Amino acid sequence: MLILPLVLLNDGATPVVVADLRVRLTQPMNGFWPDWAARRMGSRWQKASLLSLRLRGTHEVLPDSLTTPRLPAVFAVPGRKTESLILEFGLKDPVVVPGNGTYRAYIEGRLLQQRGFSRRAWKSIVTFDLQVDGIDADGQYIAISNDPDWKP
User: Fold this and answer.
1) How many Å apart are CA 28 and CA 101, to the nearest integer?
2) Of these four, 30, 34, 66, 127, which has the most CB atoms within 10 Å of its CB?
3) How many CB atoms lie within 10 A of CB 65?
4) Domains, the chain, with CATH or none
């Protein structure tokens, strides 16, 4: 599970409807997915240069262990406005779980904003480097800096 805050800005005059969101992660910048991941995915592994995490829900505030997310639903960003969200992404088939390292993350959306919309078309929203560290916190939420020089 990956929980990210996101602010969407619609700088146009007409509303933009967001039908779906996903996060895609490249292989870690230190080189490779873990060996065990390649073994579990078998022949699919050669095609898996990106790991896709689908939107599982949204939260009003940063979640704790007892918070149940709202189910993902279509939402609109009014013209010349912003929409602030806390999004929960997860793996549909958790064969591979990202390990420690720095990943290139791509947040993409299916946006209903113009004629000729294709339900299969994903539009890039933002790209950034995501620092992932495995921390065991016994069910407690811990905020982690995305600064690559930060040391826990």
Assistant:
1) 6
2) 34
3) 9
4) 2-132 (2.60.40)
The confidence score (pLDDT) of residue 130 equals 87
Helix, strand, coil percentages (3-state) for the chain, rounded to 5, are 10, 45, 50
Tell me the whole-structure pTM to 2 decimals: 0.74
* SS3 of residue 41 by DSSP: helix
Instruction: Decide: 12 and 76 in contact? Cβ < 8 Å.
Output: no
Closest CA to 12 of 92, 78, 103: 78
In whole angstroms, give the CA distance from residue 150 to residue 26.
Answer: 21
Distance CA 12, CA 16 (A): 9
Q: What pLDDT score does 30 carry?
A: 56
Token look-up 């078998």 returns 42
Q: How far is CA 134 from the centre of its chain?
A: 17
